[in-house]
Amino acid sequence: MDRSHASAPGVTSALRDQHGRSIEYLRISVTDRCNFRCVYCMPLAGLAWLPKADILTYEEIAAMVVQLAPLGLRRVRLSGGEPTIRPRLDALIAMLRAIPEIQDISLSTNGVRLAELSPVLRAAGLDRVNMSVDSLRPGRIAAIARRPVAFDPVAAASAAERTGLGPIKINVVVMRGINDDEIIDFVRLTFEHPWHVRFIELMPVGDMRELTWDHVVESEEVLDRASALGTLTRTVGPARGNGPADYYRVSGAAGTIGVISPMTHTYCDSCNRVRLTADGRLRTCLFGDHEVNLRDPYRRGEPLEEHFRAALANKPKEHQLLQMRIGGLRALSQVGG
User: Fold this and answer.
1) For the chain, which terminal residue's Cβ has fewer other Cβ atoms within 10 angstroms, N or C?
2) Taking all residues of the chain, what is their mean pLDDT, rounded to a whole number?
3) How far apart are CA 190 and CA 198, in angstroms?
4) Which of the two residues, 269 and 211, has the higher pLDDT score?
């Protein structure tokens, strides 16, 4: 198995944090609500939902990006909760598409509404989608989501691909004893489709602590299991949105597999992203405790550049998930992953 590292393409940006990392990528949570209650992501009973008045309007989100894009932002990703449950998501996408500096708009979704919404989202200017898919078996999908969903994720991803949304990425949180017996089934998808299936190490955080280190399947084990289908060769990922994944191609496959390893590697040296929560807090590290309120200054009419640069000046060098210090998060759904 060839696992030699390939160099990532360089990124330039007017924005740099205190450690010299270029910041060009903003993940925007448009809602804290979700139609799933995935075992690793949100408590079964849900959370105390944000009051509507606290949540940024689409116009506010777009206006913030208008201010920040000239500073170096080039890519935005819409997330949640589950972003497709917020009405008229296409309206926000169209606003973002109209910002000249923004080169790439993507969506993270569980895919339940993807077949229905793909045409309108693509027409509004959406470039690509990441689907969170933790099983290919209907009964298990419902068990992990803890919702009685009747859903075919392969059909949903295929529908998105037909509308021109691509590259298609499938994100799988691997959990020992829960879905790790499907690793090979997911790898087989890359023979059938030119998709990028990324296996993510489980992150047992907050109220999800009934999932422990015993449920973590390390990326090396995932790759070893995948190699049963053929030789793995280290490769570059999709042209857009490489992120923290390391990519491999199984001999003969049309697509790739990737591994994202937050529990065994920090991959923070190349972090180029910050997150905007649904209530307008800029979170500079997914698992850190540092965040800056942008909503209130914006609503007071203050320019955001000073607040944004101040936030970057305090962006931590690396996350502390391995030390189980997670910055007050109760659930991953609070920040969109």
Assistant:
1) N
2) 86
3) 11
4) 211
Q: Which residue has the tokens 């989202």?
A: 121
Q: Cα separation of 258 and 246, whole Å?
A: 5
pLDDT in tens, 220-269: 999 999 999 999 999 988 866 556 789 999 999 999 999 998 877 655 55
The DSSP line for 257-304 is EEEE-TTT----TT--EEEE-TTSEEESSTTSS-EEE-HHHHHTT--S
Q: What are the structural domains of the chain? A: 25-334 (3.20.20.70)
Dihedral, 260, 264, 269, 271 alpha carbons, nearest 10: 40
Please list the helix, strand and coil fractions of the chain in percent, rounded to the nearest 5, in that order. Answer: 30, 20, 50
Backbone dihedral region of 96: left (phi > 0), alpha (psi from -120 to 50 degrees) or beta? alpha
pLDDT, tens only, 292-331: 999 999 999 999 999 988 888 876 655 555 544 444 555 4
- 297 contacts 308 by C-beta, under 8 angstroms: no
